[in-house]
Write the structure tokens for this entry.
Amino acid sequence: MTTKYDDLFFRTTTSDTGEIPSPRNYESPDIIPYGISPQGDPKKLFTSNYGQDVGQNLVGNGPNYIYLRTTNLSSGPQQGVASLYYSKASLLLFPDQWQDNQIFTSDNQPGSLLKADSAGDIAVTESPFFWEPNDISGDHYCLISRVVTNKHENPIPQVGTYSDLTDFIIENPGFGWRNVSVVDANSPDFNHAIHFPGKPDGGQFIFLLTCTNVPAGGVVAFSSGDAGPNPPIVVQPTVVPDTVPGPDGNRSWGTFVISNIPPNFETNITYSYWAKGTKPLLGFKIQLSFQAYVAPGSKNFSRMLAPHQLGAPPELAQKLSGQRGITLGSHTTILR
């Protein structure tokens, strides 16, 4: 059963309306790196393009102005203080990776006011966050947002296991996550190496590569070179088949590995795309996600989602029939 969040809310995607539980795709359009110059009227600009993801790649060794945007899902006026954090690229974003990496505003404050004058209003940070990150060749940064209001303080908890991370994600919709790379649409081939942090509670998990509006004939793959998981985290280069548009108008296809991960297993996972002469379609997106599933009667079962709600392709959904799951982390590549 889903419910509706009732406060200032960072969306996970442009289609997110605030229902809980959320698919949690870690590509929030409301964390907005917007280049090296501040905007004269950010409220007007980021309200007008609310239906779009206009975030850009961060500029290494240069000034970056970053704005946050929320939807007011409370029943009346609401305000809060937003803060922003960063982490180096990681498939999972445990708080100990980012809670000490706070980004300050352009006037050197730890937070920026978000103010919504009425229910349903879009609130934009009054002061942008300002950051000059070091350039990390072949890597990227993840951004994490947080808003504190009189209804939800959204404290940062201690999270030491995959199970703890599940609780944190389910219970804290007042956080936003942006783990996105933007690739030039004229040169779409890429290889992204994403860190996977080990934790004490191993178990069976899903590594899912989802292709949205990726043209037939392109090739994808993902792998980790480290021994330990059974079976290994490897999908050999695979040709994307032709697909038909779904009800939302998007073409979707996915490939996956169901693997038993040993405790404290740590690695880098590289996912790749080769266009092979094809031209990207509008809305091209490739996402690598890490998912956990539980059987009926398990903790949090009623607060999780069915496989198809988490983007499972038919073969995976059939294998996981009757179970529910959560996306614990993802990294997404889009073209622009």
